[in-house]
Amino acid sequence: MSDTLSFTVSDMTCGHCARTITNAVLAAYPAAKVDVDLSTKRVAVGNASDRSAVASVIEAEGYSPVAVD
Ligand SMILES: [Cu+2]
C-alpha cells in the first residue's frame, strides 16, 4: 500500500507538537513516511492505509486530527 493519508491538526502549534506526532506515528507504523507542515497544520502520512488507526495514534498524543481528502 502506498496511500497517503492527510490530516489537519489544528492544535499542532509548534515544532514540539510536530515531533511528538511524527514520532508517535513512526512508532506505530515504522514504514510510514510522515510529512508535517506546521504553517498549514497538515500531517501527511505516506505508506499507510488505515486512516482511522493513524488518526487514533495522533489522538492518543492529545491532538485532534481531522481527515483531509
Ligand atoms: Cu507544540
Q: What is the tally of helical segments?
A: 2
| Beta-strand proportion | 25-35%
Q: Biggest β-sheet, characterized? A: 4 strands, antiparallel
- The second-level CATH architecture is 2-Layer Sandwich
CATH class reads Alpha Beta
Helix percentage: 25-40%
Bound molecules: copper (II) ion
Strand order of the largest sheet: 2-3-1-4
Q: Which fold name corresponds to the CATH topology?
A: Alpha-Beta Plaits
Overall 3D geometry? globular
SSE pattern, N- to C-terminal? EHEEHE
The overall average pLDDT, rounded, is 95
Calculate the terminal CA-CA distance, rounded to whole Å. 17 Å
Uncertain segments: none
Global structural class? alpha+beta
The overall strand count is 4
Describe the structure.
The protein has 69 residues and is of the alpha+beta class. It has one domain: Alpha-Beta Plaits. Helix content is 35%, strand content 29%. The chain is built from two helices and four strands. It has helices at 15-28, 51-60; strands spanning 4-9, 33-37, 42-46, 65-68. A four-stranded antiparallel sheet has the order 2-3-1-4, covered by helices on one side. A hairpin with a 4-residue loop joins strand 2 (33-37) and strand 3. The longest helix has 14 residues, at 15-28. The chain is globular and about 25 Å long. It starts with a strand and ends with a strand. The model has no long low-confidence stretch (mean pLDDT 95). Bound molecules: copper (II) ion. Copper (II) ion binds at residues 13-14, 16-17.
